[in-house]
Amino acid sequence: MSQFDVTDGLGGNDGQAMPPAYYFLWHLVALGVIKAQFGPVTTGADRLAATASPTITGTVWDTIATAFPQASEPAVVALIDVGVSKLHPNLRTRIDPRSIDLASHRHGATTQPIDPANPHEREEEAPFFAGLDISGLGALGLGADDTAFLSALVGELTASKGVVRQLADGDETFGSHGTAVAGLVVGEPAAIIESETDPAPPSVAPELLASSNGDALSICPNPGVLPYFGVDPFSRLISIRTSFDTDPEQFIAAFLHAWNCGADIILLPRGLPDPVRSRVLPKPDLAQNDHLRTNREKADLFARLAEEGAAGSEIDPYAASASGAREWTILEKLIVAISRKIPVICAAGNDGESQIIYPARLAAADNGVVAVGAVTPNGLRSGYSNYGDGLTLVAPADDGEVFNRHQLRRDTTHPAANVDYYDPGRGQVLPFSSYALVTTDLPGIYGYEAGSPPRSARVPPFAAPGTGGGYYTTFGGTSGASALVAGVAALAARANKAKNGPAARLDGLQAKAILVAACRHATPVRPGTTQLAPDPMNADDEPTKGLSYYFGAGLLDAEIAVDAALGN
């Protein structure tokens, strides 16, 4: 795990680096998932101890269990991202078997353990989209041609066969972001079970283990594993792996798979590479030039179409467009329609811009898209977090440095902090937060922390990597904040199932309403004591736009959300 350094004079020797000055699950306290008392001390070395070792007095998990002790139905979060390590000790039992890989196969793929008796590559077909039916979504607002195209695509997926491969799992080499996000949502404490010669298969329960070669098995907590908790460690996560290719059909398939699986929440902690909708809009003083350029492009397009028409060419209304424009339009309508049935939690983006990224910017009062920004324990928008019209709410995360004419926000833990110089001019000097989210990391050299490989030196680490294996990392961004919000949405969904039965579901609008109603502006981001306050990022007068411009409905409180779902 990364070491956090604090050089703000809290008990340090002449400003030297200090150990972590906070509880590693501080974000759960900030969200109200955990009730904790940090103590009244606010200065000096005592602050380090008071902040790092709070007194835990209760959790929202207890609230649900106390109200309905017999209820055990988990909520299901569908994560559309780059993949999740299925071997991580804090995630092994949380990953739903319906997880699929759409990055390497358009109809889905999964991996099965390599058979030592038949180690050669083999594939088996699997119908991952069997029974897909989108009639429950109602009218999507598409034209006749686009509706026909979507129907054909759904028909293709329904009849398709993905593959089950005997290959190394791609999630164990390209899944650091998804693994970090998954831990924040559903991570749970775990122990690693090992034999003297070979780690036990993660799919086998500890009480059922038996050594085939007579070696003694030891069941003990690995000192490299933290007693880690996600926001809702009692729920499950479907990993839907997608690539960064500008291929809209893989994202259409991803949302349709989440719908087909009956997920309670969809989490998209990154933007989509739509070549048109994902563009950052120009500032007002540049908009006129952009408008002129757009008009020239349109004129050129019309001229080319006229030439093609004169040549006798015919455009097939049912054909996939070369640019993917039709597919991207279908995806946009599909996201909005699905969000009314299943809340879609999206990251607002990390550009520090007064506009949010796509598809978070689809958030509106009549849909279930939730655009999530990030805040720090200083009560400020995280230095990188996008904000502005359309932002739904915020959750805690790390911070980002800002050096512009409107504000100066410096990381004082940087080694050069005592020797560099920057004149803020007329800009405001604002505090930088050294707090970050701690979460699960992809074990081994492909993770954020590039932890050491397993004893056998196999790369990637398909077995438990042991102490020093890079199980944890610092994390943040609006990706981390949106993951926390998805976890709270899972808590609310699980509370609703506990009260109304396993089949009960909150639709997208209901879930979003609960989340928004559970937000507050007049609240500190614990363990901080400062209430939310706007900051000038892209203009000196921006703070006059009000708190909602920066924080949407405000900081989310899980306790309020769960109480609402329980009808309290």
In short:
It is built from twelve helices and 21 strands. It has helices at 26-30, 44-52, 60-67, 144-159, 176-186, 248-260, 284-310, 325-339, 477-500, 508-517, 547-551, 558-566, and strands at residues 34-37, 55-59, 76-81, 100-101, 109-111, 123-126, 162-165, 192-195, 217-220, 236-241, 265-268, 344-347, 369-375, 393-396, 402-403, 407-409, 428-429, 437-440, 472-475, 519-520, 555-556.
Structure commentary:
The protein is an alpha/beta fold and 568 residues long. The protein has one domain: Peptidase S8/S53 domain (Rossmann fold, 3-Layer(aba) Sandwich), CATH 3.40.50. Helix content is 27%, strand content 14%. The protein has helices spanning 26-30, 44-52, 60-67, 144-159, 176-186, 248-260, 284-310, 325-339, 477-500, 508-517, 547-551, 558-566; strands at residues 34-37, 55-59, 76-81, 100-101, 109-111, 123-126, 162-165, 192-195, 217-220, 236-241, 265-268, 344-347, 369-375, 393-396, 402-403, 407-409, 428-429, 437-440, 472-475, 519-520, 555-556. Strands 4-10-3-11-12-13-14 form a seven-stranded parallel sheet, with helices on both faces. Helix 3 (60-67) runs parallel beside helix 12. The longest helix has 27 residues, at 284-310. The chain is globular and about 60 Å long. The model is unreliable at 1-20, 191-221, 308-318 and 453-468 (pLDDT under 50).
- Beta-strand content estimate: 5-15%
**CATH-wise, what's the superfamily?**
Peptidase S8/S53 domain
CATH architectural label = 3-Layer(aba) Sandwich
Termini gap: 39 Å
Q: Kindly state the number of beta strands.
A: 21
Separate helix tally: 12
Rg is 25 Å
What is the CATH class designation?
Alpha Beta
Mean pLDDT level:
82
